[in-house]
Amino acid sequence: ASGAYPKRVKVVEVGPRDGLQNEKNVVPTPVKINLINMLSETGLQVIEATSFVSPKWVPQMADHTEVMQGINKFPGISYPVLTPNLKGFQAAVAAGAKEVSIFGAASEMFTKKNINCSIEESLERFDEVMKAAREASIPVRGYVSCVLGCPYEGKISAAKVAEVSKKMYSMGCYEISLGDTIGVGTPGSMKEMLAVVMKEVPVGALAVHCHDTYGQALANILVALQMGVSVVDASVAGLGGCPYAQGASGNVATEDLVYMLNGLGIHTGVDLQKLMDTGTFICNALNRKTNSKVSQASCRL
Amino acid sequence: QELQASGLPEYIKIVEVGPRDGLQNEKVIVPTDIKIELINQLSKTGLPAIEVTSFVSSKWVPQMADHKEVMRGIERHPGVQYPVLTPNLQGFHSAIAAGATEVSVFGAASESFSKMNINCSIEESIERFEEVIKSARNMNIPVRGYVSCALGCPYEGNIAPDKVAEVSKRLYSMGCYEISLGDTIGVGTPGSMKKMLEAVMKEIPLSALAVHCHDTYGQALANILTAIQMGVAVVDSSVAGLGGCPYAKGATGNVATEDVIYMLNGLGINTGVNLCAVMEAGNFICTALNKKTNSKVAQASFSTGTI
User: What range(s) does the Pyruvate carboxyltransferase domain occupy (chain A) (predicted)?
Assistant: First the structure.
């Protein structure tokens, strides 16, 4: 049954990183910087700026240092960056980063295919980053991928998700973002997974990162909110396709999420119109149509 | 209606509106034999109800001009209902003559919408339907009532939940066995869906309620989830998400049946419908319409080679 909803939800904008990283077209550095600057004016409190990973692996994020140094940093807004290892962490801090993120997974096969090691080995790698971050007083956000299904293993046990989340939380991550990486989750599997994870990690430290590949994202987010989760990741204009289902959509659109939260009377601090304008800007730059239905509908009225 | 331990219904009836609501709102008109083939394919998926066509003047709705041929041409599978729209007595008689065994009437919770759509007030439209419902009851023909603009109107904006409850109650007490509450322009959210259902549920038993959500603002599945959490156990949807929104050019309309079933399957709710078979029917009609599907499940399944 639908219980009470949180009064406020923190929206974590992942468009500039997760979004752009998974778009076919690469945008030039000034466009990325302008995107982030526009997002900074919408009321969003957290904007994932870039990824300090080798350009050999992720060419779209090759300009990470320029982006980090080029953006306007507004007080009260956090600009986390991905740091897959100590080297990336050090480069990020040198470029001015004040918050970093690390990525784990609830699937062994996914970890092997993605970063060529086991879950255990990946967490050992992150331990170095955690130590360095602690010393520099830099907060670390932890992501867990494949929480509702894996492109290789299929079904993922909720217990495994809880185990990895607990490890990352006790290592020092202030927040754990649970990712439905291939969007196969439904309100049923979301509820089941959260019930188990919430036994190990306090709900106040949990976030959901839902993909809309099967159209289930908002329904999954709704259930997460009903269970007390109050941090939700989303991507402006729904940027970022799904690398595992060519042509299919990926990230849920921030506009559509904010529209739903507004309708529920939940405070986000985000100006929907400014957000839509930002989406229009980046879609023009990418020469693509928006994935946001709210944006699509509003244009014509 | 049995509820599971989760508080959700054990079974949900899906009312497939693709052949009528869907095709009526598509730019391209498909030939009669394609319509018949679509409905025949849908009849084999396990869907319990398929809205076939509309007995309305072809002057107003040219896409449904072949209503008689379609009604007479389709296979009638046992256990499947084939309702048709009948906006007035003339349409009703024509529908019965063509073999219809269930009809639908359309009301609205907005005066402006009623005026713009069918050129009369809500009260006048209900008087018109009363004739249809009386005749239908005399012949033991069940009548389904639709209430449009239940969560917002393209002309009036916000619609009071009490107004929706009032119109729904009128249609129900006149003899409609079920009231389908339509978010016609898809502006609703779980917040407004909950408020509206709370008001309507005071006047109409839960078992007689259905929701007809449009996905124009991407809110349909979240709205449907809210409705089923409140005990609603009948959901309208359209194969491949056929049918755009006439009020927001280029925007989507009906929620895709495939996406609804995917969600209900994941919730352990029985629908009796074979998802793959629906995707195949969706693939058939999208090919005929020369358009991409609006169903994300179909899109993803196709991309990953699952179908």
Answer: 9-276
List pLDDT tens digits, range A94-113.
999 999 999 999 999 999 99
Q: Where are the domains of chain B?
A: 85-303
Q: Would you tell me which CATH number, out of the four given (3.30.70.2190, 3.50.50.60, 3.20.20.70, 3.30.70.3400), belongs to the domain B85-303?
A: 3.20.20.70
pTM: 0.95
**CATH (residue range A10-296):** 3.20.20.70
Q: ipTM score of the complex?
A: 0.93
Domain boundaries, chain A: 10-296
CA distance A215 to chain B (A): 5
Q: What would the pLDDT profile of B79-121 be if each residue is shown by its tens digit?
A: 999 999 999 999 999 999 999 999 999 999 999 999 988 889 9
**Which candidate in A194, A223, A293 is best for mutational testing of the B interface (most B CBs within 10 A)?**
A293
Is residue B307 within 8 Å of B277, Cβ to Cβ? Answer: no
